[in-house]
């Protein structure tokens, strides 16, 4: 039998009377439980928001992207393209040319981000779920079309059903003298708009998709020049292993980046916010656990006679110390267990029933997304353990010193 644990349980579960110490212990349990529940729920919401952003980016960006280490464009020979496409795990490789351009439609104009994609882009089916008007067509019967973001459509008042008004794209010609009075100083392309897509992310509001060949003519790219090479992977492929293989193949002048690495600022901001929220809630749990400190301190005074009896029976200071440390652990871990269960239950209810919504009809999802991760639960338990040790150590040490003082 573990004597310190047995005595600690007897102190905790004693029903002989409900003293102020007992109510203080219950209050400490409640504080730790509420703090633990809040920590589980808030961290899960941050995880859900992170996954939601990944889903948003997945509608436009590829699993892996090859881009130049310096500058905007690079040259990729057909032999390199073939090698990349033949790598195990590569489902689709799309050549891309991207740059800013001036867009005109009727009497309106705005600056847009033109993205030229080759014929393999349609195999990725990324825009299927975000098309809000028209069709996802870039080339048909020898005619070229553009697909625009909702923001571009609103800025230019574009009507995809109107075949008589083309979208005009202009880009400065580097080989000619730039002058606002000379139309010949700009390369121009005119395309009809076939469709409109909407993605719940402001950095895609200015996007215009056009065929790669049209983009090369507009931006002045050679047939082997690209801004990016976008790779969609076969499901189940080891993304990091394939990234390392591609990096070796393309050399140091090019970078192979995952979808997360293409959006480092957003995910870094989410992780920093998550860190500060974790520290804040950990501090709240620590403040709530102060009640444990007071409860144990008063319990040491109440059990002074018991400590003396145990000392007379040969108990060592270490035994007394462990009794009160375990008493603090019972109080805190009981509250933490209840908090964990309540937090997981709330996350399940939010995921299943959407208890808390965004409060707007324009959001891509109706309710706050949540995702429980095991490492967050481990961090939560470790925080409770550290807080328990901090709040229980001094009263336990004081009880051991009281035994030593009684023997002198």
Give a description of the structure.
It comes from Fibrella forsythiae. It is found in: Cell membrane. InterPro entries: ABC3_permease_C (IPR003838), Lipoprotein-release_system (IPR051447), MacB_PCD (IPR025857). The chain crosses the membrane at residues 20-46, 275-301, 322-346, 377-396. Keywords: Cell membrane, Membrane, Transmembrane, Transmembrane helix. Helices cover 50% and strands 20% of the residues. The protein has a six-stranded mixed beta barrel with strand order 3-4-10-7-9-8. A two-stranded antiparallel sheet has the order 2-11. The longest helix is centred in the first third of the chain and has 39 residues, at 20-58. It has helices spanning 3-13, 20-58, 78-85, 150-156, 212-219, 239-250, 264-288, 290-302, 304-312, 317-353, 374-407, and strands at 64-68, 74-75, 90-105, 108-117, 131-134, 139-140, 143-149, 167-172, 186-197, 207-211, 225-226, 228-233, 254-258. It has 408 residues and is an alpha+beta fold. The mean pLDDT is 84. The protein folds into two domains: 3-57 and 266-407, no CATH class; 64-259, no CATH class. The radius of gyration is 32 Å and the shape is elongated. The protein is built from eleven helices and 13 strands. β3 and β4 form a beta hairpin.
């Amino acid at each position: 039998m573990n004597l310190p644990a047995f005595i600690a349980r007897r102190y905790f579960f004693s029903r002989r009377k409900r003293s102020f110490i007992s109510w203080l212990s219950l209050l400490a349990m409640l504080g730790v439980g509420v703090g633990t529940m809040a920590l589980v729920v808030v961290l899960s919401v941050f995880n859900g928001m992170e996954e939601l952003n990944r889903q948003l980016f997945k509608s436009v960006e590829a699993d892996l992207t090859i881009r130049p280490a310096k500058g905007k464009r690079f040259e990729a020979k057909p032999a390199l393209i073939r090698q990349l496409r033949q790598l195990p795990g590569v489902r689709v490789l799309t050549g891309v040319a991207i740059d800013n351009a001036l867009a005109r439609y009727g009497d309106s104009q705005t600056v847009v981000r033109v993205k030229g994609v080759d014929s393999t882009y349609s195999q990725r089916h990324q825009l299927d779920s975000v098309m809000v008007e028209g069709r996802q067509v870039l080339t048909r019967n020898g005619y070229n079309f553009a697909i625009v973001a909702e923001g571009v459509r609103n800025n230019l008042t574009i009507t995809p059903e109107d075949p008589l008004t083309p979208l005009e794209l202009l880009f400065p010609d580097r080989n000619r003298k730039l002058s606002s009075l000379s139309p010949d100083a700009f390369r121009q392309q005119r395309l009809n708009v076939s469709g409109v897509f909407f993605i719940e992310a402001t950095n895609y509001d200015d996007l215009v998709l056009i065929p790669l060949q049209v983009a090369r003519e507009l931006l002045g790219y050679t047939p082997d020049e690209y801004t990016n090479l976008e790779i969609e992977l076969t499901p189940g492929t080891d993304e990091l292993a394939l990234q390392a293989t591609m990096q070796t193949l393309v050399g140091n002048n090019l970078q192979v980046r995952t979808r997360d690495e293409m959006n480092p600022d957003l995910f870094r901001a989410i992780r920093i916010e998550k860190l500060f929220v974790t520290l804040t809630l950990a501090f709240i749990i620590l403040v709530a656990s102060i009640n444990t400190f007071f409860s144990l301190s008063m319990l040491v005074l109440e059990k002074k006679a018991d400590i003396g009896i145990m000392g007379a029976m040969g108990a060592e200071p270490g035994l007394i110390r462990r009794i009160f440390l375990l008493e603090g652990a019972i109080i805190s871990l009981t509250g933490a267990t209840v908090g964990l269960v309540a937090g997981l239950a709330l996350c399940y209810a939010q995921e299943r029933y959407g208890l808390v919504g965004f409060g707007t009809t324009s959001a891509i999802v109706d309710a706050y997304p949540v995702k429980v991760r095991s490492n967050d639960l481990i961090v939560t338990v470790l925080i409770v353990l550290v807080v328990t040790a901090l709040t229980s150590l001094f009263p336990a040490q004081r009880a051991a010193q009281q035994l030593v003082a009684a023997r002198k």
